[in-house]
Amino acid sequence: MDVFYAYTYGTAAWLGLKGLALVSGPRLIVTLLLDESRVTPSDVEIYFSRSFGLALLAVALLTVILTGSIPLTAESAEGVSTDETDPRAPYAVPVLFITTLFHAALAFYDYTCYTLSGQVALGIGTFGSGIIASVGLWCLLFSTTRGKLDAKTGADKRTSGFPFKNAQADKRFAEKKGQ
Q: What is the pLDDT of residues 16-51, one digit of tens each?
């Protein structure tokens, strides 16, 4: 499985898990996160909890659909690419960027709340969002371009010899140039 697929489905699963928990048991979630000891959360807290849960489910579904992980046409035998010119997934890179920023911001927010309150649920949220944000960053850095590969050697043409020289490559280049 490609790392991009893993990121897409991981994001959808993580957001879906959070969304289902908020939609199905908002009283439990709000009660777990309350500092003061009162019996039930207010109706406004339950409303916002369910609304946020439905929004998370929608974002999870949009992430999978807009990145092209679920093909919307019948002619997708080649798989998904993150190439900007690929008509099957035109929004793959923007969705990848936005969801990576979302997970990074959520991990930071969960961590700051965890350091103040020490609640285990926030620690788990920090870990999960941080892992997904780091995979998203990896995809943004390395998975969105094919690179400029040399047809003969297979090496990336954009590399340089700084700060270390590649004596073997220089020797082969000099031999080819001399022929």
A: 999 998 888 877 777 776 667 666 777 887 888 888
Query: 68, 86 in Cβ contact below 8 A?
Result: yes
Return all residues near 41 (Cβ < 8 A) that are at least 6 apart: 26, 27, 30, 31, 34, 49
With CA atoms as reference, report the closest residue to 22 among 125, 120, 115, 119: 125
The string of pLDDT tens digits covering residues 97-122 is 999 999 999 999 999 999 998 888 88
User: Which residue type, as a one-letter code, is found at position 68?
Assistant: G
- Would you call the peptide bond into 71 cis, given omega within 30 degrees of 0 as the criterion? no
Of 9, 12, 8, 32, the C-alpha closest to 22 is 32
Cα angle vertex 100, ends 22, 56, to 5°? 20
Which residue in the block uniquely carries the two structure tokens 């959360």? 41
Given a contact cutoff of 8 angstroms between Cβ atoms, the answer to whether 96 and 80 are in contact is no
CA 139 to chain centre: 8
